[in-house]
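pasting for the record
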Amino acid sequence: MAEAPSPPGETGEPSSTERQLDLGLKIVGAFVATGLGALAGLYEALLAPLRLPHSVYAPVALVLAVLGNPVLSWFAGAVTGRRAAAILPAAAWCVIWYASASRTTEGDLIITGGNWVGLATLLAGPIAFAVGVLVPVMFNQRKALRGKPPSG
């Protein structure tokens, strides 16, 4: 007697609607991650010239970049399922910072050479994105190595 085909949800394979919904959510997640990267870059660039009383620069932008950028790269990889997606918020962040460090036609400049917070953030920001990609890869490798039986 022939067995009746089971509905798509019962075989363990996702239906085409579920696959399309998953793809759509990944695309939306990629756009959200990119937008958050641009927004973080904008806020950090605007906070870089922030001064405390007595003309001391406040490193708020640097702290936000070092703590927030790895989270953004992790988020991009998590919502899309691809580690390479961490490039999206990093690229948006870098575009904003490039524009902030470039003079306008009127000569205006947000990130100046005398602003140590801006220069340190410009260096640490992309490194923080790289750390957000590298750390999960290292943990996954370590887990994989622990799970392998000894050779020989």
